[in-house]
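Each letter names a residue; structure tokens follow underneath. Both lines appear below:
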Amino acid sequence: MSEHTVKAFDTDIGQLRGLIAEMGGLAEVAIADAIDALVRHDTEKARLVVANDARLDALEAEVDRFAIRIIALRAPMADDLRDVIAALKISGVIERIGDYAKNIAKRVSEMERIKKFEPLTLIPAMAEIAQSMVRDVLNAYGSRDSILAVQVIERDEKVDNFYNSIFRNLVAHMMENPSTISSAAQLLFVARNLERIGDHATNVAEMVYFAATGLYLSEREQAEKGESAG
């Protein structure tokens, strides 16, 4: 009976991770499509990004129901319980990442077509880093890779630097070209959403690290300081 229960739990966790992976894939695509729609001023593609967000919402609800069922039926403990709780939290964060992609897509129809605008050329590069963080942190979750989770966290600084650079460029551009203030403000909103995606990927990485090691990153840092002091 014990062996059957363990195998059944492994199957449940596999399904739960599969749902999380599907959510992550949808969020990645949403980010890429939203930015592509923005750069090419493709309002139809932007509309599809907004419409497809409903699938992410449905998957989050499915993860919630399934995780609660696992807790009720399997009564997981220790590492197993951390896995289930991490999945619950991560699904909520991925849903929020999808919302940020949807928010970016919504801006496309509100902007004028811009051909030459330096901040617009920086945003795809910023989005690529944010998207790679989402992809890698989901890979780290699937493989319980605490090292990859830490690497994702370290990459967040690059996203922040892009945001600061874009902010400065947009402010300067608005001062020099008052007629572009409306579109520039929309781009600032886009950059802010990408920055938040990076923050959320970092939050997931912290959850992955805890699920894999049983330690919070602050505890890891304290332990490393103690070793170096010794």
Observations:
- DSSP finds seven helices and no strands in the chain.
- The radius of gyration is 20 Å.
- Residues 225-230 have pLDDT under 50 and may be disordered.
- Residues 2-222 form a domain with the Methane Monooxygenase Hydroxylase; Chain G, domain 1 fold (CATH 1.20.58.220).
